[in-house]
Amino acid sequence: SYRAVSRRLACGDVEGRLEAIFGRVRAIQAKSGRFDMLLCVGNFFGSTSEAEWAEYRTGAKKAPIPTYVLGANSPDTLSYFPDVSGCELAENITYLGRRGVYSGCSGLQIAYLSGTEAQQQPEPAHCFSAKDVTELKTSLLAAPNFRGVDILLTSPWPRDVGTFANSAGEIDTKKCGSKLVADLAASLKPRYHFAALEKAYYERLPYRNHMVLQETPQHVTRFIALADVGNASKKKYLYAFSIVPMSSMDPAELVKQPQDVTENPYRKLRKEAPKSKAPLSAEEEPACQFFFDLNKHQGKKRPSDGKERGDSQPKQAKKPPQPTGPCWFCLASPEVEKHLVVSIGTHCYLALAKGGLSPDHVLILPIGHYQSVVDLSSEVLEEVTKYKAALKEFFRSKGKRYVLFERNYRSQHLQLQVIPVPLDLCTSEDIKEAFITQAQEQQIELLEIPEHSDLAQVAQPGIPYFYVELDTGEKLFHRIRGRFPLQFGRCVLASEALLAQPQRADWRQCAAQRPEEAAQARAFRQDFEPFDFSLRD
């Protein structure tokens, strides 16, 4: 039926404490009613299991509910699992097998992988290899309309599961766990993923399985690591949950996003995966044929038929609006600090930032008065693009990559802040991760938008926004709906995660005397000259 609700229990390392776990299950059932099954991850058997286990193996005692366990994680317990493909170990206790998918009569799909990640070849019997993970992924992803599995059971944690998330306490998720399990979780998109082995309880905030604005919404994943049964610290080792099989759910209900949903911790893995072009379904068309209307909170698509913008012709050259008062950035204005200007084109100019994060922190500015990138006429936008290309080439020649950001909020003249970061300091993924992590900490929804999309596709003129662009073309975007920290972009770049100069987050603390600024501008102008198209055009 549609509401085929299953009530399940999951537990961490039993380590042979069968009386303890089954006693706890009986107590819970007496209080809360019957559960359908118990799923055990981590070490089911321990070094002193034999006496307790004999009573269950011989049938003298029986597990109170159907219990499904993963295989050995060390050579010591291999003898308890006579058949690698899975078998009944005792009445009501089943070994699932080395790897595979268990489908119950309710339609619930449970994917499982036994053992720990192999560190050598050939892999020992208690370990899994990249081949095991690939075969498990292939068997599921080959199914037509595969959306994910209901539950994934592994003993090790996935590497990096704590990225973009609440703290995992003493566990360092960047070092702990298995990269192969992370790859498996990224591909199988389980609604629940249980793991153990670390003697810790960690319920990660749910994470999304789609790229916002780039893919249709999908269900979220909840990762839960469980402690060892009967541990002295009273850490949680048993988790009760109810689940309706994905196959029985209303699609709209399945993809509902909880308020505390985070970015996917395995974004890097998803990006590195070979991009196979799946045939588009009837509901989906190429993203380039749509604009995204961010007036609605979800990325609702509106056709790019030109009606929204009056016509589908390129923007005609138009005079920029005049400033309502003195402007510090209109080049013709007496307020402009002209000693900071380092290059002047036909429609734009470059100037060193006052109180820059570094001596080569520059601004790309339109000569005329435009408030934001989405207000620019086509010829001004074209020259902005030329300056970006010239700066990329210039900074790369110095062993750096640039990060560009714009804050279209409480500012009246467009300023594109361009800050170079040493190539050997961090990757473009590190930069994106730093921005997304610090945005989440401040409840700012910073979304990745398609690399080749025009900013005008996600922001309409007059709408406040903040956006970041890397010199690879990758972009992050936030539609500002209320207050926004004015120094957010600088703070992220100055943070320990990137330039490690938190004392320079506020430009006012970094302002130099005019002669020093003029000397820095002369030095930059001289250095940039071979790359400056404005001197040749």
UniProtKB/TrEMBL annotation:
Organism (species): Molothrus ater
UniProt family annotation: Belongs to the CWF19 family.
GO terms under biological process: mRNA splicing, via spliceosome
UniProt domain Cwf19-like protein C-terminal: residue ranges: 442-533
Origin: domain of life: Eukaryota
GO molecular function: RNA lariat debranching enzyme activator activity
Comp. bias (Basic and acidic residues): 302-312
Name this protein carries in UniProt: CWF19-like protein 1
Lineage: Eukaryota, Metazoa, Chordata, Craniata, Vertebrata
Domain Cwf19-like C-terminal intervals: 316-424
Cellular-component GO terms for this entry: post-mRNA release spliceosomal complex
UniProt xrefs under Pfam families: CwfJ_C_1, CwfJ_C_2
Gene name for this UniProt entry: Cwf19l1
Residue numbers spanned by region Disordered: 254-283, 297-323
